[in-house]
Structures are given as structure tokens and as C-alpha cells.
Write a structure and sequence with these properties.
Blueprint: H1 8-37, H2 42-63, H3 67-74, H4 77-102, H5 106-127, H6 134-154, H7 159-176, H8 182-207, H9 216-223, H10 225-240, H11 245-251, H12 254-265, H13 272-300
Length: about 300
């Protein structure tokens, strides 16, 4: 949690880190879209991401001097078990997201990340006895209507949106139970996944279907999956320690907004019903934002 008394310089650096983090996440669809255009399939993208995230996560742990904490966590079976579960949750999220982008469902993926913070509020109230404000109730209600309208517009449940929101919400719940810094937890998760990624990439290359060595440009693009995965998470951890949670709440809507714009730009269908659906979602986001702004002002007044 951030320190409300943090100096202005720290808050400014935290804001810059948060803006960069969510902007990078927002433009990730373009990255996977480009890989798809190079002929790289969904499972190969996932395998390369699992492989190349590990050395970057390792470098982050070394640079931050958290290796002793990694060794301490490795001696705690319960913590390692929780991180194994969080690894499955984030892997599920990655698979759904990459598959959605590769199959031109970027707008539906953006919807998932719009409703994620609202789902977090609902879960907090239902399972962790967190107090839900009036604005929170209204925002959740509007989002629920938006999802229902989206289901009508699509002719089915927006499974991609719900899958992304639920998997990331579950990931957050599990990580809240882990008594370790963000970088340490991320390293352990990457360590769990790296052998799977390495085995898959080797198998793809051996079968002649892999693209890792297809050309210098393709190799560079695939290796870029490492920093594209780890660097935004590191920036998020940096920002979260220096910004009020309400500020982080505002920033998290940057990524799905960019994703939505990209989805429209690449020609995904935007019917009147889908626009109506997003109208309810955006209204929920606006109410959420107003509630966060009001809480931030109440906290700032005593200071």
C-alpha cells in the first residue's frame, strides 16, 4: 500500500511509472497482432512469453537485492503453494488474452479489463467484508447491465471478457495472501512457467514449426515478450508503493481504453448494441472514478 505522506517527488515518479505501465499494457494487443501477422500461433506466443519472462524476472530480483527473500519463500511450502495457484490464474489470463487478440476479439478483451476493478469491489464486499460505497453499488449495477447488453449484442455470454476479469481477480486475491514482495512473487511464478515454455519452444523448433529462428526481426520480436511481460509489472509495483490506491484506480482504465481504440482501428465490428453495452460500462467507470476522487479528497483534507 502506498504511503499517503510520500514526498511530491516520489508521487510524481510513481505517477509516471503508472502511466507508462498501463500505456504499455494498453498497446500489447498491437504486439500480439504483429506476431500473428508473422505467422506465430497463439500457443507459440504463450510459450515464448513463458520462456523469456524468466531471465527478466531473475534480473529484476538480482537488481533489487531480493535473492535472500526468494530463498526464504522457497522454504515455505504454503507460500510456494499459493504462488503455484496464482501462476495457474495468471497463465489462464494470458492464454485467454493472447487468444482473444489473435482471433480479433480485442474489444471484448477490453471489456474484461473495464469490469475487472468493479468485480474486485464486488468480491471484496462479498467474501472479505469490505464496505461497499453507494458509488460502488451503482458502478457494479451499471457494469452488470453492460455485460447483459453485451451478451445480447454477441448472441452469447461475453466469455472472453468474463474469463479475463475472473482470472485476474482470482490472481489478485491469491497474491494478497502471499507474504512476499511483488518482484519475488513474480520471479517464482516465472520460474514455475519457464520449463513449460522452454519445452514447448524446443518442441516447436524441433518439429520445424517454430518461428524463433525464422529471421532476426522475428527472433527480436519473440524475445521482446520477456520485457513486455515483466517491465510493466515492475513499474506497477513501483507505482503502487508511491501512489494512493484511488490514483491507481484511475490509472487502471487507461489500458482497456487504448485496447478498445485499437480494436476499433483494426476493424472489429462495433454495432449499436455493443456501443450501448460500453455506454453502461463507461457510466459505471465514471461513477467508480467519482467515488475514488471523493475518497481521495476526504483523505487529503486532514493532511
Amino acid at each position: 500500500m502506498s504511503d499517503p505522506s510520500a514526498p511530491d517527488g516520489e508521487r510524481r515518479s510513481g505517477l509516471i511509472a503508472g502511466l507508462i505501465c498501463y500505456t504499455v499494457w494498453g498497446f500489447l494487443p498491437l504486439y500480439f497482432h504483429l506476431l500473428s501477422g508473422m505467422g506465430v500461433g497463439v500457443w507459440e506466443m504463450i510459450g515464448e512469453r513463458l520462456l523469456w519472462a524468466f531471465p527478466w524476472a531473475l534480473g529484476l530480483v538480482i537488481l533489487s537485492g531480493q535473492w535472500p527473500q526468494v530463498l526464504a519463500v522457497a522454504r515455505k511450502p504454503r507460500t510456494m503453494g499459493l504462488l503455484a495457484l496464482s501462476t495457474l490464474a495468471i497463465l489462464t489470463n494470458w492464454i485467454i488474452y493472447v487468444a482473444a487478440v489473435a482471433s480479433n476479439h480485442i474489444i471484448e478483451a477490453a471489456l474484461g479489463y473495464y469490469i475487472n476493478p468493479l468485480l474486485n469491489m464486488a468480491v471484496g464486499a462479498l467474501f472479505f467484508r469490505e464496505r461497499l460505497s453507494t458509488e460502488g453499488r451503482i458502478a457494479i449495477g451499471l457494469a452488470t447491465i453492460g455485460v447483459a447488453v453485451q451478451a445480447v449484442a454477441l448472441g452469447r455470454l461475453p466469455l472472453i471478457s468474463l474469463g479475463l476479469a475472473v482470472s485476474f481477480c482470482l490472481y489478485g486475491i491469491l497474491r494478497k495472501q502471499v507474504k512476499a514482495d511483488a518482484q519475488t512473487g513474480l520471479f517464482v511464478e516465472c520460474a514455475y512457467l519457464a520449463p513449460v515454455g522452454l519445452a514447448y519452444v524446443i518442441w516447436m523448433q524441433h518439429s520445424g514449426a517454430g518461428h524463433l529462428l525464422a529471421s532476426p526481426a522475428t527472433t527480436a520480436m519473440l524475445m521482446l515478450a520477456g520485457p513486455a511481460t515483466v517491465v510493466p509489472l515492475a513499474l506497477f509495483a513501483f507505482a503502487a508503493r508511491r501512489l494512493p490506491l484511488t490514483a491507481v484506480g484511475f490509472l487502471q482504465f487507461i489500458a482497456p481504453t487504448i485496447g478498445f481504440i485499437i480494436g476499433v482501428a483494426v476493424g472489429e465490428p462495433l454495432t449499436p448494441m455493443r456501443i450501448l453495452s460500453f455506454g453502461f460500462i463507461w457510466a459505471g467507470v465514471a461513477v467508480f472514478g467519482y467515488g475514488a476522487w471523493r475518497r481521495m479528497r476526504l483523505v487529503a483534507k486532514p493532511a
